[in-house]
Fold each of these.
Amino acid sequence: MREHYKALQRKIVLIMVAAAIVPLIILAAINYFEFQATFLREAQTPFRSIVAKTKNSFELFLAERSSTVSLIASIYGYDDLADKGTLRRIFLAMQREFAGFADLALIDEDGRIVNYVGPYYKELEGVDYSSQEWFHRVRSQNRYTSEVFSGFRHFPHVVIAVRHTTPDGQSWIVRATLDTTQFKKILAAMNLEPGSDAFLISRQGILQTDSAYYGKALEPVPLDLPAAGQEATVAESVDSRGRKILVSVAGIADTDFVLMAVKSTDAFLLNWLIVRLDLLLVFLFSCLCIYFVAARTVGRLIDRLHQSDQERERAMLQMEHSQKLSSIGRLAAGIAHEVNNPLAIINEKAGLLQDIVALEKEFPKRDMFEAQLASITAAVQRCKDITHRMLGFARRMDVKIEQLNVNDMVRETLTFLEKEALHRQVRIVLELDDSLPAVSCDRGQLQQVFLNVLTNALAAVPEGGRTTIRSFARGASFIAVSFEDNGVGMDEETRAHIFEPFFTTKGEEGTGLGMSIIYGIVKRHGGDIEVQSELGSGSTVTVILPIRQPGTGART
Ligand code: ADP
Ligand code: MG
């Protein structure tokens, strides 16, 4: 039985916990992904914007220099540019205004150097550029910014070349070179956090400036190259050393350069880990709370359910019991009623016979007849007694309700049995509470109740035994009178059937009607009888009566 409640409890707790935890899980999952997205955004956005800003710096830097070279190519004539003094003046002015120019040269249509200002004049004396990549590009595009290369001077540099064609068809090329130290300055201005790296690469993935982690200029960069558009983009990646990184790239307009910046995601991952841990802790704590609350509440509920189930079961049993008793009572009353008629006839006929015997003067064996008739009349009287009592059990007698003091009733009843008690040396102890209020009862019936209980107690105790009678208040609206004896006691069987009519353990001596009759009486008065007994150690029979009359609200 207990198992059934345990299983029920487990099931309800499970359902309650599931009902609370499923939304919690959904909420936690939503939180998790939201947080993750926010974190990623927070890590990416500033990174992307600094790359975009730097890309703009590069574009401005290169556009300025390219325009300067273009201006020089178009405002000076070929002869001016071919003049050593003029070109030197122009170059000095350029260097003054724009940092980064390393030299300046005039090159004719066939790729030969015509004039040159700069530190490499010895190495470049009479050099022929007609086979060089940049030369072909400028011839076809008119304006060209090269990648970084070493060229004839074995030093990384960038070429800016502009081709100018006069209206009469003569054309020449002005070429300036930039050293890459300016690039490094622009990159340094990004002020990236330690562990990060920024550098220029070509679209083919060749490093254009030195990188802190991924090689020197002109080496291929050992990273996957994301497609670089004009806009700065950020992507997650893993570098050749297995580090998790964020890579941002932005193509620099009108050139083959791509600005690339790399940032370790370690700090971001650590923060994210802490937040995840927090989320997990909150989640686990909530789960625990839900579980404890559900378990406690359901536990209490189930306990109460169990209790009320037990009470209901007890009430059902009691009802069954009293219903059984009342139907037996009705049966007994019916029999008693039916038996009374033939008994009356037998009595009458016996009386008639007695009269006949008395009137006849010469009646043979008169004494014998008279004796037999007397015993018939005695037997009939005995039968009448029994039917009378049976009718009493079934509430067929007139009652008169009075206000009675139970203590007086106990004392009155005792007078009937004092002699017998004295004879058998049974001690009767009275512990009566004199402050008790009166009860509403029929005098004769209450006397019958006490008499029956006391008779049974006296019958149960051995010679020299003891019976204690107590009266006391039971709650606010009941009075109890208990009869305790130290007699033979009852077994379970006897306790179960004690109120049934004709149930007796005394054989021929007993009728088994006493307890059944007084049970009916007490119940009718709105009271109850309790029996406590152990085989061999005595019994206590307690009669409980309401203080007010039943029907006036004392008992529902
Ligand atoms: P009877 O006294 O005629 O046997 P009752 O109805 O008065 O019938 O009692 C029924 C039975 O209940 C008794 O036979 C006896 O076994 C048991 N009984 C009643 N009161 C006591 C008691 N005080 N001690 C032991 N047994 C008792
Ligand atoms: Mg009896």
Note: The chain has a mean pLDDT of 88.
Amino acid sequence: MSRHYRIPFLLLAVIALGSRAGAVETEGSGPADGPLTLWYTKPAAKWMEALPVGNGRLGAMVFGQPQKDRLQLNDVTVWSGGPQPDADRKDAYKNLPEIRRAIREGKYDLAERLCAKGFNSDAPYNASYQTLGDLAFDFALPAGEVRDYRRQLDLARAVAGVTFSAGGVRFTREVFASAPDGVLVERLAADRKGAIGFSMKLSRVERAKTRFEAPDTLVMAGDAGGALRYEARARVVAEGGTVTGDGDRLTVKDADAVTVLLTAATTYALDPDKKYEGGDLSVARTRMDAAAAKSYDALKAAHVADYRRYFDRVRLDLGPADASRPTDERLKAYHDRPDPSFAALFYQFGRYLLISSSRPDDPLPANLQGIWADGVKPPWNCDYHTNINVQMNYWAAEPANLSETHLPMLRLIQGLAGPGARTAKAYFGPDTPGWVLSYTTNAWGWTSPGKGMPWGVWFGGSGWMCQHLFEHYAFTRDKDYLRSVYPTMKGAAAFWLANLVEGADGKLITSPSTSPENSFITDSGMKSTVCEGATMDKSIVWDLLTNTAQAAAVLGVDEDFRKKVEAARDRIRPIQVGKAGQVEEWGGDWDLNSKDPHHRHVSHLFGLHPGHEISALGTPDLAAAARKTLELRGDDGTGWSLAWKVNFWARLHDGDHACRLMANQLRFTEQEKTIMAGAGGTYANLFDAHPPFQIDGNFGFVSGVDEMLLQSQERYVDPAAPGEDRYYVDVLPALPHAWADGSAKGLRARGGFEVDLSWRGGRLQAAAIRSVAGTACQVRYAGKTLPLSMKPGESVTLDGTLSR
Ligand code: FUC
């Protein structure tokens, strides 16, 4: 790992300090069959019913079939393909003047053709995240029917399992993925001695060879059809009985209990300078030897303690849970009879998924499916789409008190500045400073535009990604961390300083400019996807320049540069309100001409969420225009689109409308085909359905709930510390009527605060605010504002009138 990617020690120390503050109370973890358990009365018949476990890097889908069972395996680094340093179109920048001219002359259709011909990428975009393989079991069960079957996932402990009886024997299986020991563990037990017998096979659909390594291990090695090689090891630790093996399988007979261990390693490292190589395959063996030397109970205790350090920080109580009904039945009932406690379960499931797919030291962040994907060609290559999806994965990381889970994403972003500098020069000219990123990236540092329109030619990726770099600081207040990421932010800002163009009105805009994956029709009937000054671009650049200037001020560096950045920011064409009172999406008032008014992307409201240019209290006129835009877009969409709308309505302080979107998102579906509009929902295993499965909706929902209960995006200037970023902390800004009584513990706010809330009859009872970093803030609730100034570690408790 190069120095560039190392997590600064102080950052870890600050996070640890902050975490301790939130980890003192642990009673949030209920019993195994309590309100925080997903449970089912049947085994998973298909992947979308299986239950995910993961330690951030290594994951498995648990099917729980009594006889022929399967753990489908993933490692977050298993990617086909390899680096593509030549993916940028050579000399694309030479086409830029002609494209800009066509746009300025209103020849948008020509501009689109020119972009499709000379401003996209012509390199193949084939690299894909892939399965690691399968651990398949064929169990010898006593004759007789399977009875009393139950399959479950305990979110409080991150342990999945099944119990059932066959032939009078009670079988128990438990599965978890341990981060501290780097191992996937399955425990097989029964209430009769000698009852455990099975054959086990380790395999992969392609490019793998498995051999038996006596006395008890299967070793699978291979490649992913490109640069990457992997090794996976499965070992059985049997109590009693016999173990034999041959070829790609081993057999256990007459054991009293067995612990199955699985480890994996790959050659991947997130280091563009080393061509993304450097991972050590021998780690699979050393981890295995270390894990096999521990007892099952010791492995489990270490795993549970480690997981609870994260999970227990936030508790959410939205009312009594009816945990006596299986999870799929509760899901099926939700849309017609929303049950707040089920929304709370879905919220905690999202936090579980983030902890399980993104740990601080992971080499890559959570992708389109987190870490869980079957086969070698999952939808959209299971990559890191940067025009909404990967960012949505991390919206909840800070507010839901899982700050460390953000770190793999923050390292990915820093790793894009190098390849993105090449892309900037290829498309905007050899003298172009800084870096840029288009609509997607992957494990190999892809930053180029895509091949097709309308998704391919879009340059908002770098600005949006840099928001995450700043947000991590805004929540943690770690200036050493901010100093380490500032050059990446500065590079993204420098690119736009050099590439904003003056519009006909003298204001600064981007050109060419698209609005992710959407198209427009002008008043004269011209259809295109390319204009100048589309709203999302402007809002992303506004956000980037604001944050970069703020970072320079906080760090006390680059005064001249900061002034230039602020001056450019202030010259960006403001958000325009169109003839229906809506926020305009494009560089013209064309929204009402659209043939697809309910398009899933709502990119032009970036300034409302995740940005902070539009706010309910600070810019009421723009907030009203945003509301109109959402009404025009409607209440349906893909899974992630519904989740984004929950966040939008929360930012508009309309909790009831946010709840309506939640009910649409929590619509049971089995649809796995790709549907681009109106079919969003949730699968039986509570994975979000685009459809197909995309995990962004799960994470976006968590963020939506956080936004309903606590907001802190709106800034003010503190005369006592004018260079520092200061935030209003809005308590219960969008509490829906349906959540009349409840409490939340451990939510995080910008400025470095941790907040516990309780409410009754829809009114705040108490807000306990702890300051991690000793920053001032202004707390707002129900029309009142209370300035607070606290020392690090200090707490205050306020009542419903914001009195102490
Ligand atoms: C964006 C969205 C699609 C899908 C894809 C992975 O391109 O427009 O709906 O989520 O990412």
Note: DSSP finds 18 helices and 34 strands in the chain.
Amino acid sequence: MAGLFSRYLVLALCLIICLTSISSANAAVRRFKWEVKYEYKSQDCVRKLALTINGKTPGPTIRAVRGDTIVVKLNNSLLTENVAIHWHGIRQIGTPWADGTEGVTQCPILAGDTFTYKFVVDRAGTYMYHAHYGMQREAGLYGSLRVALPDGESEPFSYDYDRSIILNDWYHKSAFEQAAGLSSPQFQWVGEPQSLLIQGRGKYLCNSTTLAKDDVCNATSPECARHVIIFVPGKTYRLRIGSLTALSALSFEIEGHNMTVVEADGHYVDPFVVKNLFIYSGETYSVIVKADQDPSRNYWAVSKIVGRESNTTSGLAVINYYPNPRRDPPTIPPTGPKWNDTDARRNFSLSIKSHPKFIQSPPQTSDRVIVLLNTQNEINGIRRWSVNNVSFNLPHTPYLIALKERLGHFDQTPPPDGYDTAKYDIFKVQDNANATSSNAIYRLKFDTVVDLILQNAQTMNKNKNDSETHPWHLHGHDFWVLGYGKGKFNKSSDPQNYNLVNPIMKNTVPVHPFGWTALRFRANNPGTWAFHCHIESHFYMGMGIVLEEGIEKVGKLPSSIMGCGDSKGYRRP
Ligand code: C2O
Ligand code: CU
């Protein structure tokens, strides 16, 4: 018996050693040197100060292979502004300090300073990066991060070429001006974007009536020339599509072509075919498209705002069938789906299931259920967004440092795990008189299973039924998407309809108007993690929470993340 056991032990040890040596033999360290600065750009033909990386917006695409270590040496060349960059979709297992979330996992990188991000990309898939400080993301600081499988492994679909596209919306006002408007008593909403960008390019229709007084328009600037994707007839394309809009929910389509959805947020999807892809800020998808249409002409790729009644013109790119000239297609671009067809969008969400060969079964029960009511409020005369009537503020000392090094303070009264479901009518405007703002966080028992239920509700708009779509993004984890429903979540009956068989895992998911979304995850990644609405202005107005798990298991914090709040001048003993 003992002999058998030791033989197994030897076998197991050998297996571990062999496997680790294989992966470390192939894993590469990929080093990048980035300089962040302001430059005049004309992304939609109107000149604007944009945040650039090495002179570009979107910034350089990071390509890596699963298991690689990414090292980004970031030089903050902004003269008067701090910065931080988040690696959206990377779980940062073992490196919670590299998550790039200012106020949660690190102090901001000061103007003139250099900071090095170092982390491992442990799963193949389509990811993104973007600024996570104030409202800087919408000033142009973002890009793609794609992780390939190691040689010898294959994905459950095939294609000839691989292209990354980031969809975005674009404002002519600076992020500063917008932030000031949002946080002042004379509340100034950001409004609809001026343009939609596809891979950083859009076209604003410049004329004397549409152009603001100081705006400079250069309709022939190469910076706003349409983005072109070449299709070689007969070939198959994988388009990796991500959205980093500041506000807008989008529908994306390619004139005359169907798309097969195969990946969502780094997980393989049970393939399904769509004409238009609904995509929310913070989500990524891979779709497979075949260049099988009449090759004698070009086609439009279109992004259109849905979920809000908007006059913003659609974003346009050109699908250029080789070897046609690069010119615009001869047709009027497709107008896309109706903006207010919530059912179509909910059905799309419900269609996304795990690929049968890659199902990671969710735990069948959970240890804790946190219901998160999403509402608009007014607190001390300032318009805010809240969760269970608590509007979130970032502390001066980031939580990771405050908890691990016992420096700095934040509100110790834990925020509520739910709201008064009996009294609160989600369909009506409520006065929410007891709303507060706080920087308190949710502390989770390590390795427990937690359900997060997003509950949508009526906004403060008294004139009409109004409930917005909010894309929620979780840092440090992927969650199982167990269900979407209409109306008020019922704690006893709705869980009976959860998909516990083949749910997709994601890191960003919408909660639809007047509906709910149920998520489950395991709190097994030591650190402090933000969970927030990915709409830039909503998070800025308090729409988020922070979770802590296993803080005692977090390794030694690098002193480079410190220097603000109570960690000023602090050097670890
Ligand atoms: Cu892409 Cu905290 O966000
Ligand atoms: Cu929101």
Note: The longest helix spans residues 2-26.
